[in-house]
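seq/struct pair 1
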Amino acid sequence: MLSICLLIVEDEDPFVKLELIDNIKKLGLASLFELQIKQALDRMVSARCNNASIDGNLHATALWFRLLREHGYEVSQDMFTVFMDETNMFSRIEAYAQC
């Protein structure tokens, strides 16, 4: 359990951290790691999470958006504008899809 706590708080890659938090939530174990999840999200928000593993990745951006909203952070849907064309439709979704 200690190693999971360290991974949540210490992992340097924001996308890996977001996926770990999401998996913990899906397993129903989030209540055991509430403090570590909050600390990790707080650090990512304060660092503004400008990272190549999230920028330009629709899956990572959507995961980031959902987790922040679920934990009470005010997040604008404007973070998705980078994926939209002039008509405000998602463009080149296949280019952003994760295989």
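seq/struct pair 2
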Amino acid sequence: MKIKLYSFLSLLIGSITLVSCIDTEETSEAIFLEDKAEIEAYLDTTTIVNVKEYKDQANAYYIIWQELSNSKDSVFVGDTVVVHYTGKFLSGQVFDTSIEQVAKDNGLYDSNYKYPPLSFKVGTFSVLTAFEFGIRQMETGDKATIIMPSELGYGRNGQGPVPPNTPLVFEVELMEVKPGLREN
């Protein structure tokens, strides 16, 4: 009996010691490098219409415009924006959308939901910061694809249908910018 108890305690202490040796920064770096490799593979194998792009390769963050409106109607902190979006995984699986037909086509349709475009005030941290950053680079009428690593998305926790450590793709259309108070 004593041998079993000592064995159990040794195993428990060994496990605690091992867990305490895990470096969260190294783990974050490993997750980021895996995300970056997956995003680069996605970009190498996926055809996305590209009329303009913003690349931050060091952070594995991309904005690729499919349509430019040239409306000159830019987004500023304090503005309220209205956006249609479709959220996807790199596999192409849709996990969320504001577009009814996309929801129907991907088995996400809920007849009790009206599918309005997303509306949010810029600078209030009400959406993913990387999503908002992408929208802030656009003008009314632009259509773009925002690609981000998991740490700029839902990170280690995931959320709803998004698993932890999952890079994300958002197809977005900036429908409207309602100007807020702006400093002169």
